[in-house]
Amino acid sequence: MNPGAVEHSTNMADGDFSLKAQEAKAKLDAHVREVVQWHFSPETGCPFWLDFASKLGWDPRREIHSFEDLKKFPPFEDDWLRGGPLRRWLPKGLAGKPIYVFETGGTTGVPKSRLAVEDFRIDYEMFSETLPDAYFPKGANWLMLGPSGPRRLRLAVEHLCQHRGGICFCVDLDPRWVIKLIKQGNMDGLEKYKAHVIEQAITILGAGHDIRCMFTTPKLLEALAEELEKRGTNVKAAGITGIFAGGTEFTPQYTRFAIEELLGECVYLTPTYGNTLMGLACSKPVSAADGYKITYFAPQPRAVIEVVSFDDADQLVGYGETGRVRLTTLTRETFIPGFLERDEGEREPPYEKYPWDGVSGVRPFRKIAAQTTVGVY
Amino acid sequence: MAVLNIPILRWGQPYTSLETDAVKHFLTGETLAKVSQANTGLLSRDMRLAPRARQALTAIPIAEIIGLMKKAADLYFSASLPLGDGEQSPDDFARQQSASTGLPEHMAKANMKKNHFVLSNMDKILDALTRGLPLDILTRGYGVESRGVTVSYQAQAPVLGLVLPSNSPGVHTLWLPVIPMQIGLLLKPGPQEPWTPYRMAAAFLQAGVPKEAMAIYPGLGDLGAEVVRLSNRTMIFGGTATVERYRGDPRVQVHGPGFSKILLGDDVVDEWEKYVNVMADSVFLNSGRGCINCSGIWASRHTREIAQALAERLGPVEPKPPEDPTASLAAFTVPGAAKAIWSSIEAGLSQAGVEHMTAKFGARLVEKEHCGYVRPVVIHCDSPEATLANTEFMFPFVSVVHCPQNEMLKRIGPTLVGSGITNDPVFQRQLMDATHIDRLNLGPVPTIQLDWLQPHEGNIVEFLYRPRAFQSKTEKLAL
């Protein structure tokens, strides 16, 4: 069964909602069939999956009819994404198109990489539809204050801004350097680097560019607001009306603090959960009445988030129960079934706008968190 | 007992966070309290209010604050005080502290007595720590001593940040003189020991200390780092890694392992039996948990006999329920901690020249459902080379180390408390000159014996106030 949608809809009084959930599930299954046909067809598929299929002993194009059928694949190993040649992931159907490569992590060793052609643009155009125009006005200029380099974030945010008719100003932060400073215990160096980044942001914001919207990370937002206040001003007075934030863990307490104390009610904050593999999961609107709970929903059918048992990745946990986040990416550029993320959270029921399962309380997976430096930028 | 909900204290203002941490009973796993957790931004933002703490305190003469401390002492020791959404009697406090830290209840009560004593004798303690300085000089920043010399002391921060431990409730006496020195307190409690900071704050506030002078921000490691980052003066408690991390940072006073020792001089070592009580008390009292507990006894001969005698004294000791007035061992409440400690000792025992003298008194590791104990361990080391010859654990553990007297001071390494038992004036002189010994006891003084009129691991007055040159020609000074 699809992550929850139809199963949960039986508990909902609203018949329209049930229908919506069923339609979403049907759309997902159709999309799965189409994407599997694409990636495993000798005419359009990529070398990696074609080679993989030749060793499976069964033909995915014949056997995969629904999202649930994807469980027939063995667990996806993240090491498959490390190193070259990158073109092993390029579907023949996209040959000749300009290719981007985006990387994740990479503090030590070879980073995981994903090639991209148009996906990041499509993902962020979809995300654009969720932004309220009152706070993210069409035509407004943006500030992208966060990691760029080999990450897709810079290009994606810039495209989002351009898609909405604006010009995007960028200030870079290199998270690999930040993690290195933390591991060295070089807190002085860390502070200086943060100050260097924030200084650039404040300079841009005060340079008459009419910047109204921004992307940043929770830590950088905090540092920016702190520095602006030291200078006798604040985020709102700097002209910002809408902030799309992500990149590291968002907690309800942080969100409450940001809304109540850093930003005030006139600045809209939308938390997101995303990465190079998935795209961008949107959050249900966050409110004080809901205890600032943050629930994310994947951009289905292009990506699916499941919350699965720590012991059995094919077993969904119950609603409200805690499990590991499992991601499936289903685009013509990238097919990644059942990728176990480095995060855990609670499984959330579908809601009207997103009639499929969500995840709340996303935080580093407890077994990995102890060994990893996270939440640093 | 109902679960208490304990808020963050933002310079006197309670704030309930959306994130809480459960403080649990180490034996039953029962939740005792839910403590609001601060995010780092909250602390960072509130630091704008830190100067108010000193302003509020300097508005009250120090002599008057000392009076408030005496009042707070009695409230802390005897009164029922508000705690979060409930109330806490002195007995509740001892039970709760014992239940979350693993310390036997009678030891929690003994710590209460210590805190009460320090608060009640604040006038004498400040007089000793300031070396007799007229205290209004701390308020005004300058003044004239009785010998006619102008002196100036400059506060180095409006508040002292404290990153407190979970496992050693005895350390709180160190920060009690801070408020009467007119410096505010920014406390980050240990996750398992929120009790003392909150009870002390309640006692201070009820006694009349301005609420702007105290803040409590519970949280995880990132919050501790933020306290250090944001405070110009911080006292932090931690292990060797923490000590190394902040070594040489004048803004930070680190309290780590003590590696406290007893050194027996050649002139007295043949009479070692006379000192067995001093040695056993130094190792064993307060469950061997403090940095001032002895972890090494060094002598040039009779070391095996000394180790044997200590093993016979300490080896049979067994864990008892925390409410038992004869309980002498504290539990390790962090899952797996006791086992990890014992594994580390076992690894050290495999080295040549190292002998486990308490082995014949039964297994040392005692594992329970939610906690663990390690029964007292006495080791004999043929030489200082062994890893266990200079190791400290937070339970009664001692290595009796064979070492010639003329090599001892070269080999002992950093030593928080050194008790040198010797009547040899040459050895005494060498001990006096040894800069790697912090507190020096000459003679059979247990390492755990405290004199409240002496500074501990750095003088708090010198840490918070800088003596500096000061001259004035103005006809009227504003202060």
Q: What characteristics describe this protein?
A:
heterodimer; A: 377 residues; alpha/beta; 11-stranded mixed β-sheet; two-stranded antiparallel sheet; 11 helices; disordered N terminus; disordered C terminus; B: 479 residues; Aldehyde Dehydrogenase, Chain A, domain 1; Aldehyde Dehydrogenase, Chain A, domain 2; 2 domains; 7-stranded mixed β-sheet; 16 helices; 22% strand; globular
Care to describe what's here?
The complex is a heterodimer of chains A (377) and B (479). Chain A is an alpha/beta fold and 377 residues long. Chain A has an 11-stranded mixed sheet, sandwiched between helices. A two-stranded antiparallel ribbon of chain A has the order 1-2. Chain B is of the alpha/beta class. Chain B has 16 helices and 24 strands. The longest helix of chain B has 17 residues. The model of chain B has no long low-confidence stretch (mean pLDDT 94). At the A-B interface, helix 9 and helix 10 of A face helix 1 and helix 9 of B.
